[in-house]
Every structure is written in C-alpha cells, then in structure tokens.
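Late entry, written up from scratch paper. The run itself happened at the end of the previous shift, but nothing got recorded in the book at the time, so transcribing now.
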Amino acid sequence: MITETHRRLSEHFAAVESPRWAEQAVSACLRRLMSSTITEAALIAVEDAWVEDEWTFVVVYRSPYFDGLLGLRRSTYDPRDNTFSTMFDPELTTAPDPKRYGRDVADFDIGEPLGTVAGNLRVDDRGIHWWGHPPTPRTQ
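Output as recorded:
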C-alpha cells in the first residue's frame, strides 16, 4: 500500500545529493517496500522515516499483521566493538552495501509478520510500538 507519505519520503531520500550510508539504506528500503514480491512488504503503509546518524535509520509503519503503529530502528554499526553487521553477517569489518541492507530490512524485517518479536515491543508516548533498538530523540 503506497501512501502519499511513503511516496514523498521515497522521493526525498532518492534526491539527496551525496547521500550518507543510512540515507542510501533507507531509500532502498522505502523503494523495496513499494515493489517487493518476496514478502507482503507491498501491504505495508509507511507513516514516517528518518535518518538518525551515518549508520542508522528509522521507519514507522502500519502492517496488516499488527493493530497499531510499528517503529523499527536499524543500525549496521556497533560503536562498542567498532564492527558492522547485517542480519546474515553478525560481525563485519566494513559497512555492508547500503542498498542491499535496505532491501533486506524491507523484505525480512518490515515485510514479515512480527512473530515472537510482538511480545517484546515497547510503546512510546506517541503510541508507536518499537522493536529493534530504541530510537534516539528526533532532531529534525
């Protein structure tokens, strides 16, 4: 389900001149959510998305598998041990390809039912049910 907000966000991130890693990743994620045939990602309604830092992005969305708003924050970099990771490679010495990372988040995180993750969601004061690492306050 491509909302006007989803389309606007996708166009915004695609138009960024000299995009950082996270901007490339969220752009790929948003585009993939509009066209994926691997999962039910095309049924996702994106409500918001932003970049938190060089390696981190956030997507807020509605899923046909959950009643309410969901938020997912994904980062490839762990500053504690100075490593990068993906869902398939837990410890990399360099950043993964941002476009592939964004597509994987769309297909295998956002586009799939929550499963056992649903039992660990944290609701914020805006009613967003967060999974993954909690977001930092938005400065935009």
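The chain has a mean pLDDT of 90.
(Scratch paper discarded after transcription.)
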